[in-house]
């Protein structure tokens, strides 16, 4: 009986073991089936993510290499398009900057959407099956980086750290870096829409996508929670900071928006009074109620002696101080680097005005059948400081010989002189026409209303460029060639125009307060109604230029070159300084002279009395009675100022 019972017990135990074994085998088969489906899903996600990754890298490398070839001039010269490498296609630079960052951000986000899913799938792999997880999935260094966070998930292999760095840079950093380069490179154009919206927003989106993808990687398989208010607030702050910095480096003021007085909607142009126009009218009405003393007090330290007959300008100066008209941080404006750029294609034989005149002179003399020894350098020849060249010693003798050959030996000397005076008059007219025709033949570059604030244009060739109403405050225009350029109503306050060539330029209504015009060439320039308060004219050549109501109050006209063609009759020269200037043939009234400050180095026109506040001796450059010191004393108190007496010649 006992043996029978033991047998039944043993059989039952065997059956239970067999049942448990079958259950375990079934569970193992099920686990293997789950693992295989996960592996298949990882393989699909890896393929899609890898394709997106390679596509993104190719696109970023393509636009990055293209970006390296972009120059600031490409934003302003339409035909200087951006050449796309490999494909051999050229596109407008502005279009390239509008489109490329957008596509770059889209590809970057598209890749990270797949990667976030891949992070979660990789984290779900079992880690206790006795072999590294990397052996059962499709090989990819990105997957290896993710699995390396778990011990035993990948084999130890050389250069693991280098591989992780490469993966991090290519997956997370390369996209935002290239988009940041576009954002930064777009700033010299001073187009806030381009920088803030079309370059700044793609950059922000790429950074947001990269950070959130990194956070998903760090979470592993944990479900993502909704973004908290604190995190959302921080991202909004980043977006605002990015947008504000882009605005400050491209526009930096609300003044341009305040002056908008027309918009186009569905092809219809609507005009209205701008905010600036309404405020300006209100300030003019307010200033009209003030007397002269009140005006002086109100504008103390802001502008020169306020002219109660020019309230329009005073209102402008007052509004210019308002926060919404100021450029908040001028130093943040990214300057366009345009030094030496040729904005106009000139023919191979094109020469600067002086050189062209030197080449024209022999041809004209030959056409008149006059030997060069008799013809001479001509009435327009000047030395380096703008003084007429002296006649060569042989010229008078050669001219007499030529006159004798033409009209006989008994010709009076005065008749010969008259012949050459007439020839000089004809020559000047012929040269002006020839140069005018040459300028008219040049193509005209259209840069009206361009924003070139703080741009570096030193040595740029801008002959006949249309820059009307352009914004060029603080621009560096040293030695720039702007002969025949249209600069009407252009804003050039504080611009550096030293040695600039602006012969025959249209500067009517231009704003050049406190501009540096030392040694500038402005012969024949149109300066009607130009504002040049406080400008520096030391050594500038303004023959045939100043006329028609230009404002040059408080300007420094020391050693400025003028002649009979310089008409200052309608110009406001109040408080300007003159030194070493010859006014003998310049049209000036007694009141205008009385409004200037000068010394004995100035030669006045005949019939003009010596102003009482002018020293009767040549003031020194430095020392107790330096010219600048005395000028500022007179400006501070015109009524109470007394000129210093001449030094005692007996004193050492």
Automatic annotation (TrEMBL):
| Listed Pfam families | Pentapeptide
User: What is the protein named?
Assistant: Secreted effector protein pipB2
Q: Could you tell me the superkingdom of the organism this chain comes from?
A: Bacteria
Q: Which residues cross the membrane?
A: 51-70, 95-116, 165-187, 193-211, 231-249
Q: Which gene encodes it?
A: pipB2
Q: Which SUPFAM superfamilies match?
A: Pentapeptide repeat-like
Residues spanning the signal sequence: none
What keywords appear on the UniProt entry? Membrane, Transmembrane, Transmembrane helix
Origin species:
Maliponia aquimaris
């Amino acid at each position: 009986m006992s043996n029978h019972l033991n047998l039944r017990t043993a059989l039952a135990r065997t059956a239970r073991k067999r049942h448990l074994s079958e259950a375990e085998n079934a569970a193992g088969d099920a686990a293997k089936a789950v693992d295989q489906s996960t592996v298949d899903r990882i393989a699909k996600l890896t393929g899609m993510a890898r394709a997106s990754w390679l596509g993104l890298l190719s696109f970023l490398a393509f636009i990055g290499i293209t970006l390296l070839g972009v120059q600031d001039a490409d934003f302003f010269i339409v035909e200087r398009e951006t050449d796309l490498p490999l494909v051999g296609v050229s596109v407008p630079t502005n279009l390239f900057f509008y489109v490329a960052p957008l596509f770059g951000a889209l590809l970057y986000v598209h890749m990270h959407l797949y990667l976030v899913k891949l992070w979660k799938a990789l984290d779900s792999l079992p880690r206790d099956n006795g072999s590294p997880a990397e052996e059962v999935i499709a090989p990819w260094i990105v997957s290896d980086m993710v699995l390396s966070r778990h011990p035993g998930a990948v084999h130890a292999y050389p250069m693991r750290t280098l591989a992780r760095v490469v993966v991090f840079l290519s997956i997370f950093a390369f996209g935002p870096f290239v988009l940041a380069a576009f954002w930064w490179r777009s700033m010299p154009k001073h187009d806030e829409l381009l920088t803030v919206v079309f370059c700044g927003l793609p950059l922000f989106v790429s950074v947001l996508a990269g950070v959130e993808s990194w956070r998903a990687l760090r979470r592993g398989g944990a479900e993502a929670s909704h973004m908290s208010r604190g995190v959302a607030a921080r991202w909004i702050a980043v977006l605002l900071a990015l947008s504000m910095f882009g605005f400050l480096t491209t526009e930096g003021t609300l003044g341009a928006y305040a002056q908008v007085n027309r918009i186009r909607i569905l092809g219809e142009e609507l005009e209205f009074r701008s905010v600036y126009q309404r405020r300006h009218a209100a300030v003019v009405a307010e200033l009209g109620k003030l007397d002269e003393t009140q005006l002086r007090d109100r504008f103390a330290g802001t502008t020169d002696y306020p002219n109660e007959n020019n309230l329009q300008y005073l209102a402008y100066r007052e509004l210019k101080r308002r926060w919404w008209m100021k450029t908040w941080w001028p130093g943040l404006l990214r300057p366009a680097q345009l030094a030496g750029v040729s904005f106009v294609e000139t023919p191979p034989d094109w020469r600067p005005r002086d050189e062209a005149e030197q080449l024209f002179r022999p041809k004209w003399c030959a056409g008149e059948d006059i030997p060069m020894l008799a013809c001479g350098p001509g009435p327009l020849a000047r030395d380096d400081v703008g003084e007429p060249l002296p006649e060569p010693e042989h010229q008078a003798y050669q001219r007499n010989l030529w006159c004798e050959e033409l009209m006989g030996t008994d010709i009076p000397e005065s008749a010969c002189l008259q012949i050459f005076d007439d020839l000089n008059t004809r020559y000047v007219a012929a040269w002006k026409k020839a140069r005018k025709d040459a300028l008219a033949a040049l193509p005209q570059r259209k840069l009206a209303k361009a924003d070139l604030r703080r741009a570096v244009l030193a040595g740029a060739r801008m002959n006949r460029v249309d820059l009307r109403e352009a914004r060029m405050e603080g621009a560096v225009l040293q030695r720039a060639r702007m002969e025949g350029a249209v600069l009407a109503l252009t804003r050039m306050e504080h611009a550096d125009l030293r040695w600039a060539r602006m012969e025959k330029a249209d500067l009517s209504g231009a704003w050049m307060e406190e501009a540096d015009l030392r040694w500038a060439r402005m012969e024949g320039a149109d300066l009607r109604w130009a504002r040049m308060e406080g400008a520096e004219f030391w050594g500038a050549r303004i023959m045939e230029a100043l006329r028609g109501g230009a404002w040059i109050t408080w300007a420094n006209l020391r050693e400025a070159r003028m002649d009979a063609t310089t008409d200052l009759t309608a110009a406001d020269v109040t408080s300007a300084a003159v030194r070493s200037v010859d006014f003998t043939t310049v049209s000036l009234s007694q009141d205008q002279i009385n409004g200037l400050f000068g010394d004995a180095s100035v030669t006045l026109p005949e019939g003009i009395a010596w102003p009482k506040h002018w020293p009767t001796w040549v003031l020194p450059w430095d020392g107790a009675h330096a010219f600048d010191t005395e000028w500022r004393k007179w400006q501070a108190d015109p009524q109470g100022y007394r000129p210093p007496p001449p030094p005692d010649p007996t004193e050492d």
